[in-house]
Amino acid sequence: MKLRLRAARLAVGFAAAAGLVMVGAGPASANYTDCSAGYACMWTSNNYPGSPNASYYTAIVLSSSSNLINSISNNGNSSIARFYDASNYTGAYITLNNPARGGQTRDPMLSNGTDATSSNWSNRISSANFA
Fold this sequence. Notes:
Order of helices and strands: HEEEEEEEE
Strand content: 25-35%
């Protein structure tokens, strides 16, 4: 009888501990998947936190987030996304393929470059478009 009582108490203790762990778990973090289909998106922090700070369907010249972008994603339908270091789609640029083409479609940390370049692109993007 004492063994059954101990087993029951132990089971209740494990269940309570599991419940505390479940309650303590926070919500899932945001991801590059928050970039809507057909758009390219940009975040001012690494690893796509929260909703994108800027996104575009065709093109964009950044204002408040100009030179503050640290992670990017191309969720476009068919085009390559270009991200420029100057306004009005000029200057040096980096590209991301769209998901249908394969290859690099996103970069969570521009400070270490992209697949195509090792240059630091953190806080450099001022405009972007689909090529």
